[in-house]
């Protein structure tokens, strides 16, 4: 029932920018904490950013100051603006949704981000 569809990934040069989008359906979007996670080959999935129903944002130290998470409760969409991209940002980026801190995440299918010269 919960559907999360990511888009906006692609190939970008170091220092470039991308904007990821995640369109949600099957949930009361405005009541959910939304997030972005990423997973590089051979590595664990890691938190990138989260944003609560009140638009309070949290970021991993590795992306703080470079990435911005935002949400549009009319469009039921969460965004990740990614600036000053580095090769180490290369990963599959996943959108997540959860009802609260004690709830489990629902996941999207992921979108590939590759940062390379």
Description:
This protein is mostly beta strands and 117 residues long. It contains no helices and eleven strands. The chain has strands at residues 3-7, 10-12, 18-25, 33-39, 46-51, 57-59, 67-72, 77-82, 91-98, 106-107, 111-115. The radius of gyration is 13 Å and the shape is globular. 31% of the residues are buried.
- The mean pLDDT is 96
If helices are DSSP runs of H or I spanning 4 or more residues, what is the number of helices? 0
Query: What is the chains' assembly state?
Result: single chain
- Given as residue ranges, the uncertain stretches (5+ residues, pLDDT < 50) are none
Helix content: under 10%
Shape assignment: globular
Distance between the ends: 40 Å
* Strand fraction: over 45%
For the biggest sheet, the summary is: 7 strands, mixed
* SSE string: EEEEEEEEEEE
Q: Helix/strand-derived class?
A: mainly beta
Number of strands: 11
Radius of gyration equals 13 Å
Write a compact overview of the structure shown:
The chain has 117 residues and is an all-beta fold.
List the helices and strands and how they pair.
Blueprint (H helix, E strand, L loop, with lengths): L2 E5 L2 E3 L5 E8 L7 E7 L6 E6 L5 E3 L7 E6 L4 E6 L8 E8 L7 E2 L3 E5 L2
Parallel strand pairs: 2-11
Antiparallel strand pairs: 1-3, 3-8, 4-5, 4-9, 5-6, 7-8, 9-10, 9-11
